[in-house]
Amino acid sequence: MNLEEATRSLKRDLIKLVRTKLSKQPFSRNELAEELQCDIASINSALKSLRSAGANISELIGGKLFLHSLLQQGGSLTLQAKDRGDGWTAVGIIADNHLGNRHSRLDVLNAAYDVYEREGVTAVLNAGNWVDGEARFNRHELIVAPGMDPQLDYAIENYPQRTGITTHYITGDDHEGWWIQRECVNVGEYFQMRAEKAGRKDLRYLGHVEADIRLKCGKGSAVGRLMHPGGGSAYALSYAPQKLVESFQGGEKPSVLWIGHYHKYDWCYPREVHCISAACTCDQSAFLRKNKIGVHVGFGITKFQQDKTDGHITRVQHEFFPYYDRGYYERRFG
Ligand SMILES: [Fe+2]
Questions:
Q1: What are the residue ranges of helices labelled H in the chain?
Q2: What is the pLDDT of residues 274-297, one digit of tens each?
Q3: Ligand 1 center to 181 CA (angstroms)
Q4: Distance 198 CA to ligand 1 centre (A)
Q5: Do residues 306 and 228 both lie within one domain?
Q6: Domain check: are 247 and 164 in the same one?
Q7: What is the residue range of 119's domain?
Q8: From ligand 1's centre to the CA of 99, what distance in Å?
Q9: Could you give the CA distance from residue 104 to residue 98 in angstroms, rounded to a whole number?
């Protein structure tokens, strides 16, 4: 081993030690340096490496650092209403792509972005589960080598990219979120970082589980919320969105709520909130089949008009593009 290799190996060891220490209890930089008998510069360099690999390190009051498996929920984005020339602002709505799973429908996902491009959509909101993640019960359905990086790289290579379209995504606490829980990685941020390194600037991380989208218009604005809630599917399609809206505290209701997770399409209007369940671009997996959970494959476009003085929404349309089981197209056209 030459000197350069030895230095690299020492650096790797230090990164591992810092990671282990921080996952057990909070430490300040000075305490870490003392514990590991090195200087602050080496600690800072190890922290930088950990962060660039997505490590979810929080800074507590007093400067102590802690590595953990929980992410603060939430995020925000301001979208300036961009009239397409016909008086409507259009936003692409998509969710639950489950890339990396053999049932994922790349054909539908690509068709969605073809439509978005044609329809003058510049912003697409993705409500989470853009990859399948990895768990004990989905390994047999994965088409990508095990591990987080191979699956994220597969998504970077295969998630559609179109000139002038930016995809703003959130992370669910399941699927991509399993890595957050197991590896203490902020996978949404890490995915964006990795995509940027690969030359993709169109994939932008919004936040974990939910994000508020400020829809600006003139001097005013309206709030749209993008969510990947938890819990199982209910018998009635509108039940989960209704309960979700019921649970929002007074004063924090959005005008439009777009949700993923349930793999269903629905549009209901409880408490004057347009609740749009986004459907999915993945056929029924073995897990869903076993649990008798059906899926709606497809994607959507939400179009709206706003009042020019205070920004409140005056008109809404949601257009849904349905697709069927892959076999349907093979039988019909194959
Ligand atoms: Fe999902």
A1: 3-24, 29-36, 40-52, 106-118, 148-158, 176-183, 187-197, 239-247, 286-290, 326-333
A2: 999 999 999 998 888 888 888 999
A3: 16
A4: 26
A5: yes
A6: yes
A7: 74-333
A8: 10
A9: 6
